[in-house]
Amino acid sequence: MTVRGRFAPSPTGPLHLGSLVAAVGSWLSARSAGGEWLVRMEDLDGPRVVPGAADEILRALERYGLVWDGDVVVQSERTGLYEEALARLRVAGLAYDCGCTRAEVARAAGAPDVSDPVDGAGAVYAGTCRGGLAPGRAARAVRFRVPDGTIVFEDRVRGRIEEEVSRSVGDFVVRRADGPFAYQLAVVVDDAEQGVTEVVRGGDLLSSTARQIALQRSLGLPTPAYAHLPLVLGSDGKKLGKRDGALPLERLDEKRVRETLALALRLLGQEAIEGTAPEMLSAAARAFDAGRIPAGPLSL
Q: How far apart are CA 298 and CA 18, in angstroms?
């Protein structure tokens, strides 16, 4: 079976160091196995998408020698696939309308914080609408009816991971109140449709993996291998964001490209040789050792 990896940035700003580390890690893993490497733009969160950011990210990847296979896939052009998947969940009784606001979900769970960087559900959902909408309530979202049981998977960097999603998250949103599909459903459908066999990505998405595996199983889709790379932290100990770790294209002179690529390789526990970006990547792919990737966060 051909190994097929992918890099799936959100075009909400320029490439930054944390994203570059994820791109390099996924590229090395796929190329070291003689596999393919795909790029997908995850642009479903329309209000946060920055015009021109997708093109800037692609140009930056090219400057770093990160050449991809095939056409770049754009999520906003694939909503028909997500519609089909959601319809299948509904037919199976695994998706239902929910009329709860975030504040109501938080109050039901006794949670003080309702923020969540992935799908807006910071509190464990209590199943308020599992039996149907209350009279007079309009649907605000569609939720996935999480099956009971523990999801177990082996992460290539973090080791054995276990999570009982019904207890840690509860039924989660797969389509938001304002219409767009949620990240969890879209990424599962896209990975399966593109034939992705391994997902190498940042550690901030580790908490999404059990939810995605639950969806894969419910939809009868294959589960790829997972590897979650260490987070890159700034001097303040926080995850690098678009602003503080950005690598604007206009600053990417050849010397800066080589230095930054060497830093990304070292953060991944790999050796960096002298040479052009393609030469550095080719050498790193030949010597790639996933066992050298650190599991914990990395501070600059």
A: 10
Two structure tokens written together for 106: 């938080």
* Alpha helices, DSSP H, located in 151-253: 165-168, 183-193, 206-219
Tokens of 297: 């966060």
The tens digit of pLDDT for each residue in 132-188 reads 998 889 999 999 999 999 999 999 999 999 999 999 999 999 998 778 999 999 999
DSSP 5-38: EEE---SSSS-BHHHHHHHHHHHHHHHHTT-EEE
Can you list the domains of the chain with their CATH numbers?
4-77+186-299 (3.40.50.620), 79-185 (3.90.800.10)
Predicted confidence (pLDDT) per residue in 259-295, tens digit: 999 999 999 999 999 999 999 999 999 999 999 999 8
Q: Provide the pLDDT for residue 26.
A: 98
Task: Report how far residue 194's alpha carbon sits from residue 229's, in angstroms, rounded to the nearest whole number.
Answer: 22
CA distance linking residue 85 with residue 207, whole number of Å: 22
* Cβ neighbour number for residue 263 with a 10 Å cutoff: 16
CA 253 – CA 91 distance, rounded (Å):
54
The CA distance from 124 to 105, in Å, is: 8
| Contact call for residues 6 and 187 (beta carbons, < 8 A) | no
Predicted confidence (pLDDT) per residue in 17-71, tens digit: 889 999 999 999 999 999 999 999 999 988 889 999 999 999 999 999 999 999 9
| DSSP sequence for 116-162 | -TTTS--S----TTTT-PPTTPPP-EEEE-PPSS-EEEEETTTEEEE
User: What's the rounded Cα separation, in Å, for the pair 202 and 25?
Assistant: 9
